[in-house]
Fold these 3 entries.
Entry 1:
Amino acid sequence: MPMDDLAALRQQYQDLLDRLQRNEREFRRLGRAVWRVQEDERRRLARELHDGVGQNLTAIKHRLAAITATLPEANADARAALEATIALCGDTLEDTRQLSRLLRPPVLDDLGLEAALRWLARSQGEASALDIAVDIGQLPPLDADLQTLLFRVAQEALNNIAKHAEASSVLLRLVVRGGLIQLQVADDGRGCDPDAALHSGGSGLGGMRERLRLYEGRLELHSATGEGTRLRAVVPLPD
């Protein structure tokens, strides 16, 4: 092949490579933008549930209690019905607050990732009877998107353990090494086939992996039957 043709072919290859890289950067930028919109919507819904529905339920509960207090003791059936309604109202209020916290915990926006992970471990441990230890190293300042990304991965991982792992204890660790931030969630449960779990599409692992890719990160899953599971999310720190 003549040298001029070879040079032209190399240039075409380089142009194609450059275009693919530009398209990939644009895909990641758009993906992050979509995900940011979703998180903003979660934040808005959480605030509406807490400040709107939650406050209305609180007001209804207090009014029902006031009405109950005015009923004569002899009207036992009506008092019992109102007290049952007040109890139902209280349960619904607590469910609403819990849903609001799960959608977007205020502690993540107010106090940052470390406090949010400690809150998540405490609340998930209480709800699922898991013993969850938290080990968080010295962290550099992290932007809001990266904090949200790591929190969502930890939240999904703990949900999966509670639903599927049959574990009794979990270690959640977050460290920075060599320009990478690494989130590890390890349990002592029944274990699984990592390849099957990653491709099952039913445990949220695929969603985790795609979100991590938007930030040039990766998801690793190590497990064997009866030996627990270790999930690791690795994301490069911004320059």
Entry 2:
Amino acid sequence: MQERKNNAANIADASDREIIMSRLIDAPRELVWEAMTKPEHVVHWWGPDGFTNTLEKLDFRVGGEWHHVMHGPDGRDYPSRSVYTAIDKPHHIEFCTGGTYKGDPKAMFEAMWTFEAVGGQTKVTIRLLFPTAQARNMAVERIGAIEGGNQTLARLAGYVIKT
């Protein structure tokens, strides 16, 4: 009984630390998965509108690292370093940004991407989990994490339709 109470508390605690976004993409799941996991594709669509990318490393395996620099339309560079923590092809990918393992308190956030086949389309859902509600709110207010995430999903959708 105590475990059930703790689980319910953990779920409630997570809701103020997370951002969830999703989009139905008009492409088969395998194609969307490839766009997310292959360096030759992800560099073309990752990030909000107006951003470009320089890929430094993409070692797509659990424990592998993904390093890239997003170049903003404002001329600033935004380096990013993530470590893959779970991969279930073609359903699910998890990575920790700014940290090295799931639950790392030093991480900026943990990202969970799911790819659900819906007929010939793919529903992509992103769940970002921040270490604190304050970190989540700062990402929303200062860097526009929700708007940027939705723009990233739109860019992914636009990219896979062209390929």
Entry 3:
Amino acid sequence: MDQAITGLHHITAISGNAKKNYDFYTRIMGLRFVKKTVNFDDPHTYHFYYGDKTGSPGTILTFFPWEDIMTGRRGTHMATEIGYSIPEGSINFWLKRLDAANIIYNKPSSKFGEIYLTFLDPDGLKIELTVPEKTDDRVPWETAEVSAENATRGFHHVTLTLDDIQATADLLVSVFGFELIKHHANRYRFASPAGDTANYIDLVEAKGELRGHVAGGSIHHIAFRMKDDAMELHYREKLEALGLNATPQLDRKYFRSVYFREPGGVLFELATDTPGFTVDESVEELGTHLMLPAQFEPQRAEIEQKLIKLV
């Protein structure tokens, strides 16, 4: 029998200015800066990871900041919004916080019986803060400005916008073991029965809407949790048997990855829970050093000179 997929591992997006991105997610959102490294394919570009204290799967948001990248466009064939879980009673804190930072937001509303607040990050990436039906017991990362009683707990959901949801829904159900749990209008919520958190995938069917363009302020891909290499390779075999073109397993230092394009056009990744972000820094020092893959260490001085200073 398959090992069950419990939910999301991480979400990767694209931003513009690295300093703006760093300031927004560490200061306004109150996330921990878990890892500062570089793009494996472009070592003069950062790769940032934000999350909880240790960068637990289901809390990790990563960015490739490209200074001069054009702005993307939300549309079909892509992931279009990231939902974070926040505690009950914290909406007013976040409203005041967004006001103080001059961030435009939509009036709080309700979806599937849960209150949520929507706003955009500095590059136009759509973020939602949702008070879940069931209390989210994950331990949050606290900062001087965002205490535990208000802090995000990690991902609540991610939304994919598609011109036809059927093939993607079939994959989530028949291969990944997700179940359709709620439906309203053109939004369909799927969940893994094996997971308690970061396990909602919303599919929005938007027939006739323009195809999205992945660039600045948009989501590049979403990753699902794999317990270990054996589980990942098992699911890779299943995808290949369905005719989906999955990559070989790739070593991303903090996890191992397999990528494939799901039938609706969104880039999916399978990512192992191990070895995690403490493989090259202690928990206390996470995010405090520029960590380079071994092949780029000889170029460290040149790379450090070209990267934007964050503080």
